[in-house]
Amino acid sequence: MHQGDLWLLSDDRSGKARPALIVTRDRAIPVLDAVIVAPVTTTLRQIPTCIPVGHHHGLTRDSVASFDHLTVVPKSMLMRRLGDLGPGAETAICRALEAMADC
What we know:
By secondary structure, the protein is mainly beta. Helix content is 13%, strand content 38%. It has one domain (5-101): SH3 type barrels. β1 and β2 form a beta hairpin. 27% of the residues are buried.
């Protein structure tokens, strides 16, 4: 599990699973029980707080990781790695975080 990975996230509330992007920095992941994720949605928005993801990232549909809906989830809810953002992941995540915090 690394920053920039896309994982299938179990949602106990709805009983469904959805993709999520790992935002937590790599050095912290091994020592934490939970990680920060950006949920992935198929509602495509071309705004600075969304990172486009799709087939070339391991997903079945074009989508975006929404930094306007960051959440903390237990690592145990991450079911299966789907793919990753690839080169430039850290830069894309930092830009989306800056836009989300308006700084």
